[in-house]
Amino acid sequence: MKSLYILLFSTLTSFGQDTIPCKCCTPEHQQFDFWIGDWNVYDTAATLIGINTILKLQEGCTLQENWAAQMTGTSYNYYNKTDSTWNQVWVDNQGGSLVLKGNYINGSMVLKGELQPEKNVDFYYNQITWTPNPDGSVTQKWDVFDKNGTLLTNAFLGNYVLKP
Asked: Does some domain include residue 6?
């Protein structure tokens, strides 16, 4: 009889527990985890140009970026398992927005925007690449290309260093 009570107790206590595995604990969902942290961001002259906090939210399904410098902005980054891509939606306090899509390629996260019309060229697109470095820092490079893939300009190059 005692073993029946033990069996009944263990059945009842495990009944309400979540047995569904973590939906966003796949290796693909963790590809951008190298960017998580509280960062000081420096330009190529090692001048502090901003701070950035990257948080993992929604049970590991979303990365939220919180940028603060002369302008502020927030992005949400997520892996879309439907089309196997990483996506970013950025909005800032200057009225700017950016939508990017891409993949983790050769050790870097590479996200691109759609072609946009421009006065000086027919069309252009943004491409941002985040690369983790051996010392734990992350390099972010934002390039602008014409519709043929020719580099027009480097819009941003920053080195993310974890705050002590």
From this structure: no
User: Which residues of the chain are under the pLDDT cut of 50?
Assistant: 4-16
Neighbours of 84 (CB within 10 A): 9
Tracing tokens 């590809």 back to the chain, one arrives at 31
Residue 95 falls inside a structural domain: yes
The boundaries of the domain holding residue 46 are 21-162
- Tell me the two tokens of residue 122: 């027919």
Determine contact, residues 125/117, Cβ cutoff 8 Å. no
Rounded Cα distance between 30 and 49, Å, is: 27
pLDDT of residue 137: 98
Closest CA to 140 of 126, 158, 163: 158
CATH of the domain at 143: 2.40.128.20
Return the C-alpha torsion angle 156, 111, 95, 44, nearest 10: -10
pTM of the entire structure?
Answer: 0.85
